[in-house]
Amino acid sequence: MKNRKKNIIVYIFLFFIALVMIFPMFWMFLLSLKSFPERFTNMWELLQSSTTISNYFDTLKSDSFGIYFLNSLFVAAAITLGNLLFSTMVGYALARKQFLGKSLITASILGVLIIPAHIIMIPLYRLMVELSWINTFWALIVPWLITPFGIFLVWQYLKSVPVELEEAAKIDGAGFWKIFFKIIMPVSKPVLTVLAIYTFLSNWNSFLFPFLFTNESNYRTLPVGLAFYLGKQSVDWGHLMAGASISAIPIIILFIIFQKQIIKGLVAGSLKD
Asked: What pLDDT, on the 0 to 100 scale, is given for residue 266?
């Protein structure tokens, strides 16, 4: 009986937490269905007013919005693929190999994890200028092809993978690259799924660095493009929320499809047999 009461309390608590997390998305979607939503003074007036999907049609018909959407998709996908490959390589080397300077590299990776990315904003911008990469996809992709978080995540996971798998493959005559692509990559699927979702989400929503590195519409990503709905004197809330709702769709779809893999990946490697 006591356990049942505890479960009820936990479920009620989680329900309210879910409401708090879902409410901003509901608010965004509600505003996107209103013409000039800024004229309403309270929530009740907003709920009673008529709805329209014209904001979505206007946003989708905008030529720039399509470019921003495709740019974000390309940049996020390229960075995700790069992290899956390079972070796994480095994580595998740290988990299995012994080499000079390993302790220093490990300490550097852990140290970078606690340093905010904004600290490198100025030196990274100067580097992009020196390389003439401003207003190019190189600036949006190359600096993020490998991340300390990705390395650390894969490294910790591979430490729980039995070495016997690789030793058996070596006995069968498999070389390094065959072992890496045929054994390490497949067996790391749970954690790589988490890394892929996290990396795609982070770069899909990235604003600061794409804003710094681009000043031409052909290279702007979706978060940067949405910022132009913010005027100096007013905010076009209807179209801004419609654009934000559309930009949230890929992330929601990814989470719905891969939610089981995400949960498995988050706990994978935390327990050993």
From this structure: 59
Instruction: Just give the CATH number of 62-267.
Output: 1.10.3720.10
Residue 116 is inside which H or E element, if any? none
**Integer Cα distance of 156 and 94 in angstroms:** 9
Phi, psi angle pair for 208, to nearest 5°: -60, -55
Q: How far apart are CA 251 and CA 254, in angstroms?
A: 5
Could you tell me the residue ranges of all domains in the chain? 62-267
Tokens representing residue 87 in the block? 């972070």
One-letter amino acid of 185: M
Pick 258 or 121 by higher pLDDT: 121
Q: How far apart are CA 1 and CA 133, in angstroms?
A: 65
The whole-angstrom distance between residue 173's C-alpha and the CA centroid of its chain comes to: 38
From residue 193, alpha-carbon distances to 8, 28, 186 in Å are 32, 28, 11
Q: Which residues pair with 198 in a beta bridge?
A: none
List pLDDT tens digits, range 222-249: 998 888 776 545 677 788 888 888 888 8
Q: Which of 185, 194, 184 is nearest to 149 (CA)?
A: 194
Q: Measured between alpha carbons, how far is 126 from 130 in angstroms, rounded to an integer?
A: 6
Q: What is the C-alpha to C-alpha distance for residues 192 and 133, in angstroms, rounded to an integer?
A: 29
In this structure, the dihedral spanned by the alpha carbons of residues 166, 168, 170 and 173, taken in order and rounded to 10 degrees, is -140
In angstroms, the CA 245 to CA 32 distance is 8
Distance CA 206, CA 140 (A): 10
Among residues 231, 271, 226, 217, the alpha carbon closest in space to that of 246 is found at 226
pLDDT, one tens digit per residue, over 32-43 is 888 777 777 677
